[in-house]
Write a structure and sequence with these properties.
mainly beta, Lipocalin, 141 residues
Length: 141
């Protein structure tokens, strides 16, 4: 029994550490399969946000969000906040919004970890069944 407790504590520590969604993630266009950007997910005041920190295609480095509305209209894609205000709810982060810079549209959003290096990002209208899913992959630090 004395040997099992340290092993259990170590496993718990590894699993707890790997359950963080914060950090840098590589995005892939769900329509073309092309890698698009590096997005940094961070936490502020108990909510989760994500911003584009790098565009992977040279031709898009200086692009702006032409189709965005409001304060995001014509903002550079690099630095643009694309996920806003998610809260953790058990194994899911939800209750916020995701912005599609390609269309300028905003959707409800939820995120779940599919593994320590794979993130399921779902944007939807109304019900979660009506939407699109992308899988983002953790960038080695």
């Amino acid at each position: 029994m004395k040997k099992i407790l340290p092993i259990f504590a170590l496993i718990f520590a590894i699993v707890s550490h790997s359950q963080s969604i914060t950090g840098k993630w590589k995005t892939t266009d769900d329509e073309t399969g092309k890698e698009r950007s590096i997005v940094e997910i961070y936490e502020s005041e108990g909510k989760v946000y994500a911003k584009i920190v790098k565009l992977l295609e040279k031709s898009e480095e200086n692009k702006v969000c032409e189709k965005c509305k409001g304060a995001n209209k014509n903002k550079p894609l690099k630095g643009l906040i694309v996920i806003d205000g998610l809260k953790k709810d058990r194994n899911e982060w939800n209750g916020g919004r995701i912005l599609d810079p390609k269309t300028g549209s905003e959707y409800k959003c939820y995120i779940t970890l599919e593994g320590p290096n794979k993130l399921k990002v779902r944007g939807y209208l109304g019900f979660a069944l009506l939407g699109r899913t992308q899988y983002w992959h953790k960038v080695a630090q």
